[in-house]
Design a protein that fits this description.
Length: about 400
């Protein structure tokens, strides 16, 4: 068998659609994010200024927002959608509004998610839609549902409204044959999300994978959960859809566990998370006749592992049940090289009003300090391309 190779250092491909000035701008921003001090000051200052109602939205929009988001509305995302589509990368419209609390907000978000399903349905380049259950549900109710405490009448009514919003989204997606991801969130609300996702899969995944739940492999219990989910799907007779991620709420999870005095659900070290992530990839490949999955990751080793295992197992690069996915503004070296080589690859394109996207932006900023390593990787690649273009 021929030797398997993908060149993720190919910065010419990774940044082909970036102009010289785009690239320099990207360099400036990632350099700032790379410094833990600047990163912390920037994030705090942004929260503070927004809290005081200072007019900083314009600055945020022109800098970090433009780097990690497609725009404030679906229409504003058009250039990003077109660029990604032209490189055979499937854009995924991700309405990134977080922290809303009223029933009217939740209905609005449900309708907006339905608009993204319509958009995907009308554009063959858009492979998936996505939503967060907290976008259509109050946190407190999800927490009560997850704790399995008995719900009072008021909570029961809220619970029914959550159920019907989630069902409306999934039913709409199913009628149009449009797959939809349900993002994973904090462990103390995840049980309610998992139960909703399982019910939706049972309803809508009987002939094709429409609903995908998300599994966070930084949790100690999630490989077992993946196996149980597969068994349940197999016994009940539906296709399991899963998005595999490492998990975005590590500090928050650990902090809460300490504060409340329970064992942290998160692995003690990065190696254990990586091992479970890669084991989950192997597990899904082994059960590809009944599991459709998406590797949502920027980790080059995991991406390489999946691509090389597909090669050695003789799985087609464009097998409909195997997908790679990254976030907009990050790891273009993986997305563009995978797409050029014929794999199914997509990218979340977050959008929404600047102020509402702040929690998402803060997660990206924190993930992108030199401490976590992602930005150093990102910076090295940008520097390499600047050099190749003789711009530095
Ligand atoms: C397409 C896509 C969709 C996503 N959807 C979701 C989602 O629905 N829910 C969600 O929570 N996240 C989601 N994420 C974010 C994801 O969970 C990660 O935070 C992010 O992708 C970084 O992990 P990585 O696999 O890219 O690789 P890496 O950069 O190699 O890994 C970093 C991750 O490893 C884990 N980690 C780091 N240090 C330690 C440690 N000391 N001990 C244990 N674990 C550690 C953490 O999860 C950290 O985020 C998504 C990411 C992508 C690309």
């Amino acid at each position: 068998m021929s030797e398997f190779k993908l060149d993720f250092q190919d910065t010419e491909t990774a940044f082909a659609d970036k102009s010289d000035s785009d690239l320099k701008e990207k360099f400036r921003l990632f350099k700032m994010l790379n410094s833990p001090v600047m990163n912390a000051i920037g994030t705090r200052a942004a929260k503070f200024a927004l809290g005081l109602g200072l007019p900083v939205e314009g600055i945020i929009k022109k800098t970090i927002f433009e780097q990690f988001c497609g725009g404030e509305t679906i229409e504003e995302c058009e250039p990003a959608i077109r660029k990604l589509g032209a490189a055979n990368i499937g854009p995924i419209l991700d309405y990134s509004v977080e922290g809303k609390a009223t029933e009217a907000d939740f209905d609005y978000t449900r309708d907006e998610i339905i608009r993204t399903i319509d958009q995907a349905n009308n554009d063959a380049k858009i492979p998936f839609a996505v939503f967060k259950v907290t976008g259509v549900a109050p946190l407190g109710t999800l927490e009560r549902m997850s704790s399995k405490r008995k719900l009072d009448g008021k909570s029961q009514a809220k619970c029914e409204r959550i159920h019907s919003r989630v069902n409306e989204i999934c039913e709409y997606a199913s009628k149009r044959g449009q797959p939809v991801f349900i993002d994973a969130e904090e462990s103390w609300i995840q049980d309610a999300i998992d139960r909703l996702a399982a019910e939706m899969m049972e309803k809508y995944n009987t002939h094709q994978p429409i609903v995908y739940n998300t599994i966070q492999l930084y949790r100690k219990d999630r490989l077992k959960f993946l196996r149980e989910s597969r068994r349940r799907a197999s016994e009940t007779g539906y296709i399991l859809g899963v998005k595999l991620v490492r998990g975005a709420y590590m500090e928050k999870e650990r902090g809460r566990a300490i504060e409340k005095g329970y064992p942290s659900p998160i692995h003690e070290d990065k190696t254990s998370t990586d091992d479970d992530y890669n084991a989950a990839i192997e597990y899904c490949l082994k059960h590809l006749d009944e599991v459709a999955f998406v590797a949502g990751t920027h980790n080059e080793k995991s991406v390489h592992l999946l691509a090389s295992r597909m090669h050695s197992l003789g799985i087609a690069k464009n097998h409909p049940y195997v997908n790679f996915s990254q976030l907009y503004g990050m790891s273009d070296n993986l997305s563009y090289v995978l797409a050029k080589n014929g794999y199914n690859v997509s990218k979340y394109v977050p959008y929404g009003p600047v102020a509402d996207a702040i929690p998402y932006l803060i997660r990206r900023a924190q993930e992108n300090t030199s401490v976590t390593g992602q930005v150093s990787r990102e910076l090295e690649l940008i520097q390499k391309e600047l050099k190749r273009r003789r711009l530095s």
